[in-house]
Specification:
This protein is an all-alpha fold. It has one domain: Growth Hormone, Chain: A (Up-down Bundle). The chain is 78% helix and 0% strand. The chain has 17 helices and no strands. It has helices at residues 9-41, 45-71, 81-97, 108-138, 143-175, 185-209, 218-222, 227-235, 238-267, 274-290, 293-300, 302-322, 328-340, 345-363, 368-396, 407-431, 439-453. Helix 1 packs antiparallel against helix 6, helix 5 (143-175) packs antiparallel against helix 11 (293-300) and helix 9 packs antiparallel against helix 10. The model has no long low-confidence stretch (mean pLDDT 86).
């Protein structure tokens, strides 16, 4: 036996509930906040871009800080689990406040309120999700089980996206009043309220079922914390920086596309209700594809599975981009290809864990929290770029809110939503070539760490 410490089966399954909960909050924000700001609040593209860029600039400081705080926490529940339990109610509250509009969007007060609620929601998302992400790396020492744990997360993520994307349009119209053709502010807020209430018990399930079995050594616990030294360790961890680059580009394509996909469906495909189908198909495909990820990752390696999946996702988006707007079957076909191969996230999460083990062996420090903070920052960076750059690009191609678009504008929207993300997925796949740690190398690193800790 290798004597690696492992998570229980219940913990592996229930770990996915955390990302299921996250999608009820953050997928709804990522998918609908931009169009809420433009079509309901009335904010201009410059204001939206400023809000999202300021939020991401703050994230560059806040995310590593939260990671450092979490990994240096001490409690009878562990380092990371308490943040999930005690942070999720506050996250739920601000997820709802983000979709409120107590002031006119044309006033400074309206812009300030939008900025405050969005930035606060992002900080609380950081407070909950960085410890949640770091938890997967300390639940098990077994590389294959880490892949399964992160596959559980990916399945939870995509099931959450299926539910949110399938139900949101209908829920928003229902709460917008009888006969509503588009969602009102009340429709957005009530839908956010329902999702936020559901998210809390899902997060708590993770708290109660998970355990942290990979701790820090006595020397690491006794070492005086230095934020500067922690940042230096992160930036000199070449494998973590490679994962960051992959995720920054991949998430710009993925989350950035989500932020503007509603515009494509409403104004190019000419249907508000079709949003549910177009945005749900990729998530259903990802759940199916994720079931095969542990097998293929074990057989071909994490890096290769990640790289191939992103290249085929790009093909799916190119099919959609080439499809005439009235050829819905072709659009759906591309959507299916894009979705079935949306399986790269478990690989990147496991690669973060490998990078943490690599740094511990190299320098004797373990940076689970700050490493996953770096991963989370890449995720939110991609989300922000989609909103901050995507929306202004829409206006640059002639987009007019709540109006019929010209043929040139519709083709511009198509390019922003489908072609540009396809190019970014190809770029992210090429960055994978810089990752030269094989899965066998990662296993050897963990074996050496156990010897150094005196565990075998």
């Amino acid at each position: 036996m290798d004597n690696f410490k492992r998570a229980s089966k219940a913990a592996v399954i229930c770990y996915g509930f955390g990302d299921l909960a996250s999608q009820f909050v953050w997928t709804f924000v990522g998918s609908y906040l931009s169009i809420f700001y433009t079509d309901v609040v009335g904010l201009g593209p410059g204001v939206i871009a400023a809000i999202m860029l300021i939020a991401r600039i703050w994230d560059a400081v806040n995310d590593p800080m939260m990671g450092a705080i979490a990994e240096n926490s001490k409690s009878r529940f562990g380092r990371f689990r308490p943040w999930i339990a005690f942070g999720c109610p506050a996250l739920a509250v601000f997820a709802v406040l983000t979709f409120t509009n107590p002031f006119s969007g044309s006033t400074a007060s309206g812009a300030v309120w939008a900025g405050f609620t969005y930035i606060a929601a992002g900080m609380l998302y950081t407070l909950v999700n960085i410890p949640y992400g770091a938890l997967s790396g300390v639940m098990s020492e077994d590389a294959n089980q880490r892949n399964v744990i992160n596959t559980s997360r990916n399945i939870g993520m995509n099931i959450g996206m299926i539910i949110v994307n399938a139900l949101s349009a209908g829920l928003m119209l229902k709460f917008s009043g009888a006969g509503a053709q588009v969602a009102t502010g009340h429709g957005y807020m009530m839908t956010a309220l329902i999702y936020s209430i559901i998210s809390i018990p899902l997060f708590l399930i993770v708290f109660f079922t998970s355990r942290e079995v990979v701790g820090r050594t006595a020397a690491q616990e006794a070492a005086k914390f230095s934020f500067v030294e922690t940042m230096r360790n992160l930036f000199t961890n070449k494998y973590l920086m490679i994962v960051f680059a992959i995720m920054a580009v991949q998430m710009t394509a993925f989350m950035g596309r989500i932020a503007v996909t509603a515009f494509y469906v409403i104004y190019c495909l000419n249907s508000f209700t079709l949003i549910a189908l177009i945005m749900t198909i990729p998530s259903i495909g990802a759940v199916i594809g994720s079931l095969f990820v542990p097998f293929f990752a074990k057989k071909y390696g994490k890096r290769n599975v990640l790289m191939i999946s992103m290249l085929i996702q790009a093909v799916g988006l190119l099919i959609i981009w080439l499809a005439p707007f009235d050829n819905i079957p072709m659009v759906i076909a591309g959507d299916i290809v894009f979705g079935v191969f949306n399986v790269g996230f478990p690989m990147t999460l496991s690669m973060v864990a490998d990078s943490v083990d690599y740094m511990e062996l190299k320098k004797g420090v373990r940076t689970d929290g700050t490493a996953y903070a770096t991963y989370g920052l890449a995720t939110k960076l991609g989300n922000a770029i989609g909103g901050a750059v995507g929306v202004p690009l829409l206006f640059m191609v002639g987009y007019k809110a709540n109006a019929a678009q010209s043929a040139e504008t519709m083709q511009g929207i198509n390019t922003i939503v489908n072609l540009i993300p396809a190019i970014l997925f190809i770029a992210a796949a090429l960055i994978c070539l810089f990752w030269n740690m094989t899965d066998h190398d990662a296993d050897e690193i963990r074996t050496q760490l156990r010897v150094k800790r005196g565990e075998q």
